Amino acid sequence: MPKNKGKGGKNRKRGKNEADDDKRELIFKEDGQEYAQVLRMLGNGRCDAMCIDGIKRLCHIRGKLHKKVWISAGDIVLVGLRDFQDDKADVILKFMPDEARLLKAYGELPDNVRLNEGIAGGVDEEDEGGVVDDYLEFGDDEISRL
Predict the structure, then answer these.
(1) Where do the domains of the chain lie?
(2) For 33-106, which CATH class?
(3) 105-137 exposure pattern, b = at least 16 Cβ within 10 A, e = fewer
(4) Where is this region: Disordered (predicted)?
(5) In sequence order, what are the beta bridge partners of 94?
């Protein structure tokens, strides 16, 4: 019978706590990089993101972040732009919520970016009326007819 000489399988890797919960130095964008907000996750390590320069790009999550840093819609990320494909980019870093607030305070992110609402959309749009607004437009007799 073979001896198990390893230290464990994939569950051991999953149990490792490599998350950086302590304060880390704030990283600003360099040449060839851009800030972006994730619009939606597509699966297979990819996501749609709206970059600050106004271009919507298909982003690939690099292997160092894949399955270690969870990225969801509405997160602020740093993407590396590709020289040969303008509509695609690579996610380099995910900013924590407090780091994103600092970036906005420093003026790196524009004022129209929504940070902590978890809404994929990125920029402020005018409210088009919700259920309460629609209810207020009708009178009581009109509601009974509906």
Answers:
(1) 33-106
(2) mainly beta
(3) eeeebeeebbbeeeebebeeeeeeeeeeeeeee
(4) 1-23
(5) 77
